[in-house]
Amino acid sequence: MTAVKTETSGGAIEIGGLRKAFGANEVLRGIDLRVASGEVVCVIGPSGSGKSTLLRCVNLLEEPTAGTVRVGGVDVTAPDVDIDAVRRRIGMVFQSFNLFPHLTALGNVVIAQRKVLRRGRAEAERIAREQLEGVGLADKTGSYPAQLSGGQQQRVAIARALAMGPEVMLFDEPTSALDPELVGDVLGVMRGLARPGEGRGMTMLVVTHEMGFAREVADRVVFMDGGVVVEEGPPARVIDDPAHERTRTFLSRVL
Ligand code: ADP
Ligand code: MG
């Protein structure tokens, strides 16, 4: 059984007129994008097109220059926003896994739950074990990052994000740093998150160069270039029958 996805009126992520400049360099030049609750949107585009900056504006790792970002109906760009509260609702997985080297897999999944959510040790460990089992690492809870492959480390990072109970998950090229044979395990975990056996899948905004994943898992694909959305639509349309020359040129390089 596949998850049934229903559009809800309050989009999980609503980005309107988003601009971001670093000095004179305007990196995002008016982005409008909506990710509905339970929807998976993949963002593709050349290096330097502003994909990471877009994700970083959603969880306020970068402060937008103009425009609005709403997550679950809450305007995260409002001046009085509680940044820590916003970040608790948004899970983020980066290209580099950023695990603490001196903590085991279990310790890495426990620590933010303890420090940020103030969960008790027993509860945090129970949730960490559940999440590590969910990403296929039940037998690695006691391993240190150096004892794990890149793909296993990235799955710990995903478990760590999920343990915080986020409403949405942002992925920034989560498989780009991995050896090719390890990519599949991480994409498999993401596929399971998007399309669980029961219930609604996680709302996901995923920057990736994995066109197979985008074609199979994304509800929509967004092609960005030069800080704007050039085109978006169902994966079969954008990837296999792009409307714009810039999209065709990009795809001819990555496919
Ligand atoms: P992408 O993820 O699509 O490769 P990025 O969002 O990382 O693109 O970067 C887009 C542009 O923004 C690049 O020209 C980059 O140099 C610039 N940029 C990104 N972050 C910063 C920053 N913190 N300070 C200055 N320039 C930045
Ligand atoms: Mg990037």
TrEMBL record:
Domain spans labelled ABC transporter: 13-251
Protein name: ABC-type polar-amino-acid transporter
Location(s) in or outside the cell: Cell membrane
GO MF term (any one): ATP binding
GO cellular component entries: plasma membrane
Reactions it catalyzes: a polar amino acid(out) + ATP + H2O = a polar amino acid(in) + ADP + phosphate + H(+)
PANTHER family named in the record: AMINO ACID IMPORT ATP-BINDING PROTEIN, GLUTAMATE_ASPARTATE IMPORT ATP-BINDING PROTEIN GLTL
Family to which this protein belongs: Belongs to the ABC transporter superfamily.
Enzyme Commission code(s) on record: 7.4.2.1
Entry membrane topology: Peripheral membrane protein
UniProt keyword list: Amino-acid transport, ATP-binding, Cell membrane, Membrane, Nucleotide-binding, Transport
Pfam families: ABC_tran
